[in-house]
Amino acid sequence: MITKIIHEEKIQKAKKYVEKGESFVIVTHVTPDGDAIGSALGLYHFLTAYGKDNVAVVVPNDFPQFYKWMPGHKEIVIHEKYPDFAEQLIRDADVIFCLDFNEPKRIERLAPAVVAAEGRRVMIDHHLNPADFCRVTMSYPEMSSTSEMVFRFICRMGMFDLINKDCAACIYTGMMTDTGSFTYNSNKPEIYTIISELIKKGIDKDLIYRKVNQVYSESRLRMMGYVLYEKMKVYPEQNAALITLSLEEMNRFHYVTGDTEGFVNLPLSIENVAFSVFIREDKDYVKISLRSVGDFPCNQFASRYFNGGGHKNASGGEFHGSLADAVAVFEEGLRVFNPNKTEDLNKHA
Ligand code: 5GP
Ligand code: MN
């Protein structure tokens, strides 16, 4: 038995939508990660197994190649590629599940369609501070992943039996990726009770690990070497490290989506580095990824300096300007707020 985390009235309300709805759309955040795709496809397989034949997954933009083995991935509609079709699906949906994001801003260009839709919106998410835009808001930041919440949601509706192998594989993938393969946010015993149930559904967890983590190109590994040798700056006084990459550098290594995945975690293997930031140039903005170990809240750094947010130990943000200016903002921020000096950020607002 696993603990009842999600409030009963939320389960019952969402269950009614599931029972009565005919057309469903599942949306998730921009630059979808393993938990976004895993939770969305997990729910997709459940609804399909339940007998719903009008279920779609819509994502704002493309997702990495190493998730393109997941059962159902070919059915995912990418808004950036098919905006009219995606928006029509959203307009026509009786129920819209909003997974792994807490505010419309996180779905970027998909936001107007989702917010204007007449269908009932249900949020299932584990980020702090959920915005009020859904009829049912299941928001539990203590959960390791949205995928774990999808598992709990299905079980609480009394439909555990409808979790098939495909559904289980997607849920497992999300749980695995959002915990760095169970190396952070993963001390709750019930996570392993759930994994045990997923294995009983027939998944091969070792194979899933390999499919996600060991399918990279030679050039990505060389780019990683370049990053570590030439591009990593360590700030010993502040227990911090920074990695930067320009578009030109990424092109030199034949960058494809997902190639820089995990780079931000690398400096955390240095003793005394408790805060790592990766600043990377994108087409029309600069993307910031932040990670910490221990108590340092990198999401506060992200929101104060890079208009972002996320979890205490894993967050992100963006910067509109040059790479050099983003680095200057980071270094200025680091001066006043670092694992060695966690003053109240408001003092510096
Ligand atoms: P990543 O570094 O993998 O892109 O993002 C890590 C986490 O930070 C995500 O799971 C998400 O919670 C959060 N995050 C990433 N980018 C942003 C952003 O631009 N804004 C906010 N609010 N959160 C972000
Ligand atoms: Mn997540």
UniProtKB/TrEMBL annotation:
InterPro entries: DDH_dom, DHH_sf, DHHA1_dom, Oligoribo/pAp-PDE_c-di-AMP_PDE
DDH domain segment(s): 24-175
DHHA1 domain span: 258-331
Highest taxon, organism lineage: Bacteria
Pfam families: DHH (PF01368), DHHA1 (PF02272)
SUPFAM superfamilies: DHH phosphoesterases
PANTHER family from the UniProt entry: BIFUNCTIONAL OLIGORIBONUCLEASE AND PAP PHOSPHATASE NRNA (PTHR47618:SF1)
Protein name: Bifunctional oligoribonuclease/PAP phosphatase NrnA
Organismal lineage: Bacteria, Pseudomonadati, Bacteroidota, Bacteroidia, Bacteroidales
